[in-house]
Amino acid sequence: MQTGIQHLHSGMAYLVLAGLIAVFIYALIGALGNRNFTDKDRKFGLIGLIPLHIQLLVGIIIYFISPLGFSNMTSGNAMADSVSRLYALEHPLINIIAVVLVTVGYSRAKKLTQDRASFRSLYMFYGIALLLILSRIPWSAWM
Ligand code: HEM
User: Is 71 left (phi over 0), alpha (psi -120 to 50) or beta?
Assistant: First the structure.
């Protein structure tokens, strides 16, 4: 089961990154073009939000079944080694912050009344989340 979940988490990462990049570019073009923020634009924001939320759930499961996750964190010396620290602490924590940012950006975009501010909320929050996620991907193990 662990291998299946690992493959799912690894494959979903492509979808997550593609979704965030797509919404970031789309919202930036919308803001620069001074377009009206419609319900279609709100729904486009879900392309970044939904895969990310699914990835969060898969990540939490993997954290408790992988030897690199919680069990490593509680083993005592995970903080001394940079790779252990990445899997046990930095990757999960930074990604949870990224999920919160994307959720806030999406909710703000829905509520704001100025069209440009709605687009800005999407590209700024999704853009920062994207950078955070990219900064803590275990690149050497992935791809
Ligand atoms: C939300 C965005 C996330 C993305 C884009 C992401 C992406 C990735 C990638 C690309 C890998 C390497 C997979 C491989 O070696 O093939 C990985 C591994 C891992 N991730 Fe995530 N992750 C995310 C969230 C999380 C969260 C929230 C947690 C925990 C709460 C988590 C826990 C882990 C663990 C424990 C591993 C190591 C699994 C193993 O090889 O045994 N991830 N993640």
Answer: alpha
Residues 6+ apart with CB under 8 A from 12: 51, 54, 55, 58
Q: Is the pTM of this model over 0.90?
A: yes
Q: Which atom of ligand 1 is nearest to the CA of 96?
A: 27
Handedness of CA 43, 56, 80, 1 (dihedral sign): negative
Q: Tell me the pLDDT tens digit for each residue of 9-33.
A: 999 999 999 999 999 999 999 999 9
Q: How far is the CA of 107 from the centre of ligand 1 (A)?
A: 25
- Relative to the CA of 66, which ligand 1 atom is closest? 41
